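ENTRY TYPE: protein
CONTENTS: sequence, structure tokens:
***
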Amino acid sequence: MNFVFDVGNVLVEYEPVEYLEKLFSDRLLAQKMFETIFKCPEWLLMDMGKLTHDEATVIFCEREPEYTDEIVYAIKNVNRMFNPISGTIEHIPKIKKAGHRIFYLSNIHNEIRDFLMSEHKYFTLFDGGVFSCDVGVIKPSPEIYRYFIDKYSLIPNECLFFDDMTDNVEAAEKEGIKSILFSTADCVLPFI
């Protein structure tokens, strides 16, 4: 079996509001930064690799000039948000020991990809994967699942995909990939 993991909220934490509330200790400011940075079209363009963090920061600051310092600070420290989910990470060696292959398939920015690959050593246990920023397309688009399957010459129904987003799970299923809506690391155990 080929285990395929999303990254955010599966391998690492991804809670932007919580991150911003810790960063600023001000709920109203955190909510403003959430809307300004994470709930805008530029976030998706970064996921597609079409904008860098620096380019997006310029756009955010032009849109909300009175929050320039806060925007710059939030983007500069965004990697603080991506802490490993220990339960899932602990399963990776077990999956490998059982003879399965492990991949990642995730929507992510270039800068976050670089941080994760350099700081989270468990990625060395993976057989490969696809980050959206490298292919210019994001989940739940069917193209990213097809690209992933073709890149590694996989058979879709021999893959088991874990993602925390219903749309992504359903899109993978439409491509013939067995999929599990990830809730906790325990949902992986029955398949090892």
User: Anything to note?
Assistant: The first strand starts at residue 2 and ends at 5. The two ends are 9 Å apart (CA to CA). The chain has a mean pLDDT of 97.
